[in-house]
Amino acid sequence: MAKNAKIRLRAGENIGSPAAEQDHEYLGACFVAMPLVDTIKDISSHRCLILGRTGAGKSAVLWHLEHTLNNVTRVDPKEASFEYVSNSTIIQYLSDLGVDLHVFYEYLWKHILAVHVIRECLGVRTEHSFRTMLGKIQSFVRRDQRKAAVVAYLESHGGKFWIDADEISKELTRSVSEKLKTEFGAASNLLDGKIGAESNQSDSEKRTIKLRAQEIVSGLQMRELNETISALADLMAEKDEGHYVLIDDLDGNWAGSEITKYALIRSLIECIKSFRRIPNLKIVVALREDLYESMILAATDRHFQPEKFEGLISRIRWTKGSLYQVVEERIARLFAHRYTRSNVRLEHVFPTEVRGEAIRAFLVERTLRRPRDIIALVNKILSSADGADLPLPARAVTSIEASFSRDRFQALAVEWRSSHPNFEVYARAVSGRSTPIRISELNGDRLYELICDVESQDRLAVDDVERLAKQAYEGSKTERLLMLARALVCCLFKSGVVGVKTCAEEPYKYCYDEHATVRDTEIGEDAKIVVHPMVASALGWREDRSIAA
After folding, report:
1. Would you state the pLDDT for residue 208?
2. Which residues does residue 313 pair with via DSSP β-bridges, in sequence order?
C-alpha cells in the first residue's frame, strides 16, 4: 500500500463468514490449501478420513473438492434414517441384551453406499439401465462363479434401488426384525412379549434370544454384498474418470444416541476400507477429531484394532503461518475490492503491537488454532472500527477483547451443548483466577454448584461428568471428587476451554496439539490447568502471560 495513502474503514466490514457453508465468496478466492488437500484429491491414496476440530476447515476442504474436481457426490447421514434404526424397539432391545450389532451397522452402510455408487457413479436410474447393468454382471459369471451371488442379491433388491436412503435403512431394519420373528416361529411371542419387560425375563430366556439374534445378525448377506462391491469395481473400471463420494456432518443429530453414533461411525470407517477395492472411487469422510477419539474409547470389542485406521487418516493441523495466510489473503481481497488496488497486508490494517506483543501472535494466541476463530476475531475488530483511519490503534483491538471472549465462549457452549448440556456450569467451576489451578483444588467448594445443578435435574446422566456428579457423595468423598474433577478437566480440555499440564516437566497442552482429548488416567493429583486466552475474559481470568508460556 502506498505510504501516504489514507484509508478510512466503512461500517460493518468483514473478511468473510467463520462458517464454511456461508463463506463461498472468500472460500473460492482465498482457499488456503494445506498438504492434506492434495493427498485427499489423490484417488490412489488410502488417506480418506479427514479429522479436525469444529471450525478447523473440514467442510471447507469438502467444498473445495466439490468445486475443483469432477464427479463428486455426497451422502448425507441425516437422510439415511439411522435415527429410525437407533429408535427401533427391537434394535434397542438387542443392544441392551448385548448382541453385537457391528455387522448389522456395517451391512447398512455397505448397502447404502453400494446403491449410491450404482445410481450416482454408474448412472443406473431406470429399470432399463438396471437390467443392462445386470447383463454385464452376468457376463462376469462365466469367468467367476461367485458373481452369480451378486446377480441374485441385486435381483432380490431390484425393486428397492430407486427408494431414498432413508427407506433403505428402514427396509433393512424391518427385514432383520422379520427374520428374528421367523426364526422364533411359534415362539415369536417370546420376543414380542418380552420387549419392554426385560425385568421379567429369566436368564435362560435372555440367553436364548441373544444367541438366536446374534446368529441372524451375523448371518446377514455380507458375502453377497462384498461380492457386489467387487462387481462394482469391474463396472467402474470401464470409466476413465475418478469418482468421489463425500460424507460430512457426522457430529450432528443423525444417529439417535451417542453410543449408536459411535458404533455407526466405526462401521462406516470399516466399510470404506471395503470400497477401496474400487480403484477409481474414493469415499471421503470428514469427522470431528474428538468424536473419532471418543468412538475409539467407546469400542468394547476386544478384537477391535484402531491402529488399522491410522493409514486412512489425514489430520487438519493449522500452523501459525497458515493462519496468518488465511487472514492476509482475505484482507487483500477485501481491500482490493472495496478500497485500493495496492497490496494491503495485515500490518497496514492493524497496529504493529498490542500490549507489547506482535499483532500476529496476539491474534493467533486468542484462537483454538482454527480459521473460524481468527476470522471471527478480525471481523469483530473491523466491524467495531467504523470510520477509523488505518492502521488501527491498539485500543481498537483491546476494546473488543472482552466482547469477543464472550462470543467465543457462547459459541463453544452451543457447539458442545448436545453432548454436554451442563457445559456452562462446568466452565464456571474453573472461573475467576489469575494463576493455574491444581486438580487437588477442584474440591467440594468449586464443584458444589456443579453437583447441585446435576442432582436437581430429573433425567439420566448424559456424560461422565454428570454421572460422577450424581455419585459424588457415595463411598469415599475424596476419591469421588477427584474422579469428578478429572472427568471435568477431560471435558473442558476437549472443548478448548482449558490447557492441561500433566506433570512438572511437560508444557501446557491444548486440544489443537497432538491429541484432541486427554484421558483421565493422564491427569495426576499434581496436574495443573489454565483457562485458554480466547475465553479467559469470559470466565473472569486476569491475564498473566507467563501462565501459558
Report:
1. 79
2. 49
The pLDDT assigned to 496 comes to: 96
Phi, psi for residue 243 in degrees, rounded to 5: -125, 140
Looking at residue 472, what DSSP letter applies? Answer: T
Helix pair 147-157, 127-141: axis angle to 10 deg: 160
Torsion angle in degrees (nearest 10) through CA of 173, 179, 182, 188: -50
In single-letter form, the type of residue at position 262 comes to: Y
List residues bridging with 283 in a β-sheet. 245
Bridge partners (DSSP) of residue 244 are 72, 282
Please say whether the beta carbons of 173 and 257 come within 8 A.
no
311: amino acid identity, one letter: G
pLDDT at 4: 46
Neighbours of 412 (CB within 10 A): 23
The residue count of the chain comes to: 549
d(CA 346, CA 351): 9
Mention every residue, 6+ apart, whose C-beta is less than 8 A from residue 201. 194
Helices (H) and strands (E) in the chain, counts: 25, 10
Are 511 and 548 spatial neighbours (Cβ–Cβ below 8 Å)? no
Rounded CA separation 394/386 (Å): 15
514's CB contacts (< 8 A; 6+ apart) are none
Q: For the segment 376-396, what is each residue's pLDDT rounded down to a tens digit?
A: 999 999 999 888 888 999 999
- Residue 354: beta bridge partners? 357
DSSP state of 176: H
Strands 437-438 and 528-531: antiparallel
pLDDT given for residue 543 in this prediction: 62
Rounded (5°) CA angle 147-153-156: 145
The amino acid that residue 522 corresponds to is: E
CA nearest to 262, candidates 276, 251, 274: 251
Residues 86 and 64: their CA atoms lie apart, in Å, by 33
Locus of grid cell 451443548: 417
CA torsion angle 477 478 480 485 (round to 10): 130
pLDDT for position 462: 87
Q: How far apart are CA 119 and CA 282, in angstroms?
A: 16
Within the chain, which residues score under 70 in pLDDT? 1-5, 158-165, 183-201, 341, 543-549
pLDDT reported for residue 158 = 66
Query: What is the rounded end-to-end Cα distance, in angstroms, of the chain?
Result: 35
Question: 447 vs 253, 428, 530, 537, CA distance in Å?
Answer: 30, 9, 17, 21
Q: SS3 sequence, 45-60? A: CCCCEEEECCCCCHHH
CB distance 328 to 346 below 8 Å: yes
DSSP-assigned states of every residue in 198-247 = GGG--HHHHHHHHHHHHHHHHTSSHHHHHHHHHHHHHHHTT-SS-EEEEE
CA separation for the pair 225, 152 (Å, rounded): 11
Q: How far apart are CA 107 and CA 405, in angstroms?
A: 45
18: which 3 cell numbers?
A: 467463520
d(CA 182, CA 171): 16
Rounded CA gap, 278 and 299, in Å?
28
CA 121 to chain centroid, in Å, comes to 26
Cβ contact 275:237 at 8 Å = no
